[in-house]
């Protein structure tokens, strides 16, 4: 699943520095496997923001992709074709 996720973000030209898998990186969206599921959150200095829990791995990755893509659209890094 993580390889598919990375490919989607690469296609959307979203930098790999904007996310982290199984580690906390300040300024990034992070995804952790925890007991019973997966946790996705935005990491700031000494705190986690917008923490979401998912029982299924696929749901956690697609939520994280959606948040990162929406942020890229807002900031003009991702521009829809058409």
Give your account of this protein's structure:
- With 82 residues, the protein is an alpha+beta fold.
- The protein has one domain (2-74).
- Helix content is 34%, strand content 30%.
- The protein contains two helices and four strands.
- The protein has helices at 2-11, 57-74, and strands at residues 19-21, 29-34, 37-44, 47-54.
- Strands 1-2-3-4 form a four-stranded mixed β-sheet, covered by helices on one side.
- Strand 2 (29-34) and strand 3 form a beta hairpin.
- Helix 1 (2-11) packs parallel to helix 2 (57-74).
- The longest helix has 18 residues, at 57-74.
- It is globular.
- The model has no long low-confidence stretch (mean pLDDT 85).
State the main characteristics:
single chain, 82 residues, alpha+beta, 2 helices
Fraction of helical residues: 25-40%
Radius of gyration: 13 Å
What is the general shape? globular
Number of strands: 4
Strand percentage lies at 25-35%
**What is the terminal separation in angstroms?**
29 Å
Low-confidence stretches: none
Mean pLDDT over the residues: 85
Continuous helix count: 2
Structural class: alpha+beta
Question: Biggest sheet: strands side by side, in what order?
Answer: 1-2-3-4
- How many discrete structural domains? 1
For the biggest sheet, the summary is: 4 strands, mixed
Order of helices and strands: HEEEEH
């Amino acid at each position: 699943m993580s390889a598919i996720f990375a490919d989607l973000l690469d296609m959307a030209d979203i930098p790999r520095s904007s996310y982290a898998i199984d580690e906390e990186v300040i300024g990034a969206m992070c995804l952790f496997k925890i007991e019973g599921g997966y946790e996705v959150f935005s990491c700031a200095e000494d705190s986690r923001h917008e923490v979401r829990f998912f029982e299924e791995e696929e749901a956690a990755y697609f939520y994280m992709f959606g948040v990162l893509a929406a942020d890229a659209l807002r900031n003009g890094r991702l521009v829809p074709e058409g």
